[in-house]
């Protein structure tokens, strides 16, 4: 008691905090750290929920709801930019605490007109800057900005940009209506982390959708092309269009006793404003229309849609048909007094016209004649399709081969994507299992050694507890890439085996070579100099690993699982031996179970 009294007196004399004050400060600091740690764990859970879904609406609803509750704020919304740097609050992508739902200005699809954002094309957010204001009346905001915030009943706000890839997609905003809100650093970090994960989630959702759409389109194209090849195989490939044209116009004019019969083809690039007669049979008394360029803007502007729908034009006398002046002018150019016009189709495209002209006088076309021309045009269109398909089939086959090749490449890409660990971007457990079975069979045939090295990060839970899961993920990424680089030149495979444990497969490698590679992996990770938490400084100042090495020449009756179990046993001994070290097992004999008694003890390399 006397010592505490003396200490308190000295502290007051020197202007220093007392022991009790320091204890209170320490308790408050510890409480705050525990709260931050709990919040980070909650953030990790939120991010896990985001990553668990591929449905954009579910992702955003989950994120806004959880973020709103974590921050203890009254509203969290998502605002999406449009191409002109305006935008609106996205329907359903918000969460509101009770009592603030009925603000009319916040109704679904509300827009926020911000001239500054439009003029600068979202500059502040494109620079990945978060904006926050604890009280709009104490932040020296412009009058127009303040009026907009008041219209939305906003008293405090924090906003973070959402990027999809390198593109600014929108804003994640947290808003307080009832009063000011003092934003804390960990709250802004939370908002930023959620915004970042939303961008990643949108990107993944888009990529998945694009991949599925491409696969579906290629599958459908493959089916359609197969049907096309089947049908076109039955079409005569000796059909020549020029012969068909000449024969058709000659026979039709003869049978119908017409003055002229012609085939008119449109120039499709001019939107049906231009075309020409490419085949004709005409009495010598009348001028030929063959190869005459015809410009008819009326057809492209007014009549095209009617003929596209299958219209037939039957005129007994052009002068009494109430035609437009431009139409009459063109008909008189070719001395036409009466005509039947029937559309010709190439597939579903209006390709041209079959024209039967009476030039010397008017003519009353009979129903039987009109029906005959209609049926003839239908047969002619089929023949035209056959001829075109014959010329296109080779190109279609080439495109089909290209599509099939693209589909195979896409399937291969999807298979490879399924063998990559999303966090560390190295091989995953599935890839490891496939590789070790393949190498086991190959080494057994070649009578060559096969080595497995298991690598475990020392005290990784302590690292996560001290620095948080974000830094933990970054540590896993750095270690994974270090292992990958260390074994790549030896034709080895580095894979994430599970949690903080990694596995290396080294074909045609055993004995001292395997140990040397393991030592190189150990050194490479130490040279990363990733700071270790204070709680394990008695062990090392930087992150280290323990390694278990097992080598064997595969033989019949053995299995890859046995090799993995011995590597695991060696790893266990390395951990028991104090970590930051390696142990090895080597045998050429068949082995059963996980007999740790055969482990060879080795001193650590550092």
β-strand percent reads 15-25%
How much helicity do the residues have? 40-55%
> Strand count, sense and closure of the main sheet?
6 strands, antiparallel
Number of beta-strand segments: 16
Globally, the shape reads elongated
Kindly report the average pLDDT value.
79
Low-confidence stretches: 220-238, 588-601
Question: How many helices does DSSP assign?
Answer: 16
Computed CA radius of gyration, to the nearest angstrom: 40 Å
N- and C-termini, Cα separation = 50 Å
Strand order of the largest sheet: 8-7-6-11-10-9
What is the SS-derived class?
A: alpha+beta
List the helices and strands and how they pair.
Blueprint: H1 2-14, H2 19-52, H3 56-71, E1 75-81, E2 87-96, H4 115-120, H5 123-126, E3 131-133, H6 143-151, E4 156-164, E5 167-176, H7 185-232, H8 241-256, E6 260-266, E7 274-282, E8 293-295, H9 297-308, E9 313-315, H10 325-333, E10 338-346, E11 349-358, H11 367-417, H12 429-446, E12 450-457, H13 460-467, H14 469-488, E13 493-498, E14 501-507, H15 511-527, E15 545-552, H16 560-576, E16 582-586
Parallel strand pairs: 15-16
Antiparallel strand pairs: 1-2, 1-5, 3-4, 4-5, 6-7, 6-11, 7-8, 9-10, 10-11, 12-14, 12-15, 13-14
């Amino acid at each position: 008691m006397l010592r505490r009294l003396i200490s308190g007196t000295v502290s007051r004399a020197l202007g220093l905090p007392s022991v009790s004050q320091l204890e209170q400060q320490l308790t408050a600091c510890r409480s705050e750290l525990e709260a931050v740690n709990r919040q980070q764990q909650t953030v990790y859970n939120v991010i896990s929920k985001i990553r668990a879904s591929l449905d954009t609406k579910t992702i955003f609803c989950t994120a806004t709801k959880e973020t709103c509750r974590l921050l203890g704020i009254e509203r969290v919304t998502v605002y999406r930019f449009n191409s002109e740097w305006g935008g609106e609050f996205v329907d359903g992508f918000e969460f509101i605490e009770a009592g603030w739902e009925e603000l009319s200005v916040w109704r679904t699809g509300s827009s926020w007109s911000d001239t500054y954002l439009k003029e600068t094309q979202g500059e502040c957010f494109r620079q990945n800057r978060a904006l926050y204001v604890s009280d709009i009346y104490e932040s020296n905001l412009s009058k127009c900005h303040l009026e907009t915030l008041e219209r939305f009943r906003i008293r405090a706000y924090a906003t973070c940009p959402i990027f999809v890839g390198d593109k600014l997609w929108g804003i994640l905003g947290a808003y307080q209506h009832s009063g000011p809100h003092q934003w804390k650093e960990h709250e802004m970090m939370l908002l930023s982390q959620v915004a970042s994960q939303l961008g990643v989630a949108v990107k993944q959702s888009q990529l998945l959708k694009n991949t599925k759409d491409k696969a579906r389109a290629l599958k459908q194209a493959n089916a359609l092309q197969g049907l096309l090849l089947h049908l076109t195989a039955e079409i005569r490939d000796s059909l020549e269009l020029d012969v068909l044209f000449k024969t058709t116009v000659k026979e039709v004019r003869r049978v119908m006793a017409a003055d002229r019969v012609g085939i008119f083809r449109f120039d499709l690039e001019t939107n049906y404003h231009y075309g020409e007669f490419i085949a004709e049979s005409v009495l010598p008394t009348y001028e030929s229309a063959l190869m005459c360029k015809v410009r008819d803007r009326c057809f492209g502007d007014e009549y095209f849609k009617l003929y596209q729908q299958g219209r037939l034009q039957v005129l007994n006398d052009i002068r009494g048909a109430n035609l437009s002046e431009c139409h009459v002018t063109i008909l008189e150019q070719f001395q036409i007094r009466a005509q039947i016009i029937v559309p010709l189709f190439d597939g579903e495209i209006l390709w041209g016209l079959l024209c039967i002209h009476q030039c010397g006088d008017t003519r009353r076309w009979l129903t039987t004649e009109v029906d005959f021309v209609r049926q003839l045009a239908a047969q002619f269109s089929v023949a035209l399709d056959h001829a075109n398909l014959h010329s296109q089939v080779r190109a279609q086959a080439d495109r089909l081969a290209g599509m099939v090749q693209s589909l195979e490449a896409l399937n291969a890409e999807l298979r490879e994507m399924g063998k990559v660990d999303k966090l560390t971007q190295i091989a995953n457990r599935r890839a490891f299992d496939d590789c070790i079975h393949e190498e086991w069979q190959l080494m057994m045939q070649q009578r060559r050694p096969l080595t497995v090295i298991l690598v475990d990060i020392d005290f990784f839970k302590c690292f996560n507890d001290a620095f948080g899961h974000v830094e933990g993920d970054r540590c896993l990424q750095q270690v994974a890439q270090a292992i990958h680089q260390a074994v790549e030149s030896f034709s080895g495979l580095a894979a994430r085996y599970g949690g903080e444990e990694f596995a290396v497969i080294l074909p045609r490698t055993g004995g001292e070579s395997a140990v040397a590679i393991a030592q190189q992996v150990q050194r490479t990770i130490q040279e990363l100099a990733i700071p270790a938490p204070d709680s394990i400084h008695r062990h090392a100042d930087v992150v280290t690993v323990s390694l278990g090495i097992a080598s064997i020449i595969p033989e019949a009756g053995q299995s890859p699982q046995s090799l993995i179990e011995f590597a695991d046993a060696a790893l266990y001994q390395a951990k028991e031996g104090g970590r930051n070290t390696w142990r090895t097992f080597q045998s050429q004999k068949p082995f059963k179970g996980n007999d740790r008694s055969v482990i060879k003890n080795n001193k650590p390399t550092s």
